[in-house]
Amino acid sequence: MSTNRRSQAAAYLIAFCSILFAAIFKLILVSELATDTPFILFYGAIVITTWYGGLAPGIFASGLCVLLSIFFFLPPYFTLTLSDPESLFRISLFLFETTIIVYLIHSLRKTREDNSLPQTQTPPTHAKDDALLLDMIQITAPIGMGFWDTQLRYVRVNPVMAALSGMNPAAHTGRTVLEVLPELGEGMQYSLKTVLETGMPILNQEIAQTRQSIFGETQQHFLMSYYRVRDSHGKTFGVSAILVDITERKKAEEEKAKLIDDLQRRREQLDFLMRASEILNSSLDYEATLRSLAVLTVPTIADWCAVDILDTNGLVQRLAVTHIDPEKVSWAYELNRKYPPKPDDPRGVYHLIRRGEPELYADIPDELLVTTVENPEVLEIIRSLGLKSAMNLPLTARGRGLGMLQLVMAESGRHYSHEDFILGQELAQRAAIAIDNARLFREATRSND
How confident is the model at residue 1 (pLDDT cuts 50, 70, 90)? Predict the structure, then answer.
C-alpha cells in the first residue's frame, strides 16, 4: 500500500474514531446535551477530521454526524427518518454549518501547506479561485458571518450579519460592536472577549433585537455562535461568528405555547364547571349548595364571591360571601347589614335582577366607582379593597329573577376576559336551574302534604 493510500485510510480512521468517541461521550457521560444541543461535540470532531484529513474526510465526517444525530439525538429516536419540522430544520442548518466549517478548515489547511513551501516555489494557481469562492460563499450565505481582529474590531461581515445594524458591510470595518450596535454591543463584546481569551467557542447564544418600522415595532430573534480563529502555528487572528435568524421559529414556539395555555385554561374551566355541577346537584337544599359553590369559586375564579337571593317577599337576602380572609368575610356581612341595597336604587342588585342582563367590568377605574357609589363612606371602603375586575351575573330561570352571583378580582391583580365572562354566565345559569328545581320540589312537597 502506498504512502498516500495509508494517509487517506488514516484520515478516515481518525474521522470514524473521533465521531464515534463524540457520540459515545454524549450518550453516556453528557446525555443532557443530547436534546438541546445534539451537535455540540460533533463540530469538534469535524474540525479535527478536516484539519488532519482534508476535504473528503471532512465531508465524510459531516455525513456520518448527520446520520448519528438523526438516529440517536433527534425524534423519533433510533430511526433514520425525521417527522418533526423543527428537527428537519435543525439537521439542515447543521449540515449547512458543517459544510462552511469544512471548507474554512480545509482552506486554512491549504494555506498552511502553501506557507510551508519554499519562498521560490510558486503557490498553486487555484489559490485565487479559492479566495473568490470563499468571498462568494460569505456574500450569498443565508446566515450571518463576521470576523473581528484581536482588538475586537470588525474586519469583515457579510450582508446578513450587517443587517443587524442596518449599515453597509464596509461601514463596519475598524469599528467595535459597541459602536455599531449600542443595544446588543455589550453582550456581544463580552462574548467576543471571552472566546478570544479562553479559546472556548460559544454556541447558539440567543439574542433579541427590536426593530422600528412603518408597521410598528417588530421583535427579531437570532442564534449567535462564536469561535476563535488561529493559524497552523497557534497564532490567534481574531474571533469569527455565525448568525442564524430564528424569528419565525420563535413565533411558532410562542403560538404553540399560547395554544397550550388556552387549552389548559379551557380544561381547567371545564373541570371547574363539572365540580360546580356536582355541588349544585348534590342536594335540594339550595342555600347550602350555593354556599358551597361560593367557597369553590375562591380563589379558583375569583378573590371575592357574593350570592344574593330574592325571597318570596321580593326582598334580597345576602346568602353567602367568601374570601380567603375570614375577617374580611365578617366585615363584608357587616357592611351589607349597615348599608343594605334598596329596591328603588337605579343601580345595584335589585336593578340587575329585574333587568336579567349580566355585566362584565374587565377594569374598574376610580371613575366608575365614583359614578356608581353615591355614599362617600362606602366609596372609601370600596376603594380600599383595590378592586380590579368584576362580573355581576343574574340568576334567572323560566324568565324569573331569582338572585345574583357576583365575582370580583382584587388582591390577585387578575382581570376577567370575555372567556371568563362566558364561564361566569354558564355557572350562573346552572345555579339558577338548581334554585328553581329546589323551590319547585318544595312547593310540590307542601302541596302533597
Answer: very low
Question: Using CB atoms within 10 A of its CB, is residue 198 exposed (0-12), middle (13-18) or buried (19+)?
Answer: exposed
> Which pLDDT tens digit goes with each residue over 16-70?
777 777 777 766 655 554 455 566 667 777 777 777 777 777 787 777 777 777 7
Looking at domain 255-448, its CATH architecture is 2-Layer Sandwich (3.30)
Cα–Cα distance measured from residue 174 to residue 329, given in angstroms and rounded to the nearest whole number: 70
Residue range(s) occupied by CATH 3.30.450.20 in the chain: 142-245
- Angstrom distance (rounded) from CA 105 to CA 51: 6
Q: Which CATH number fits domain 142-245: 3.30.1330.40, 3.40.630.10, 3.90.800.10, 3.30.450.20?
A: 3.30.450.20
Helix (H) or strand (E) holding 13: helix 3-28
Cis geometry, peptide bond prior to residue 358 (ω within 30 degrees of 0): no
Cβ neighbors of 435 (< 8 A, separation 6 or more) are 286, 290, 309, 395, 397, 402, 403
Is residue 266 helix, strand or coil? helix
Q: How many CB atoms neighbour CB 64 within 10 A?
A: 21
Residue closest to 149 by CA, chosen among 196, 81, 111:
196
Q: Give pLDDT, residue 38.
A: 61
Between CA 185 and CA 412 the distance in angstroms is 39
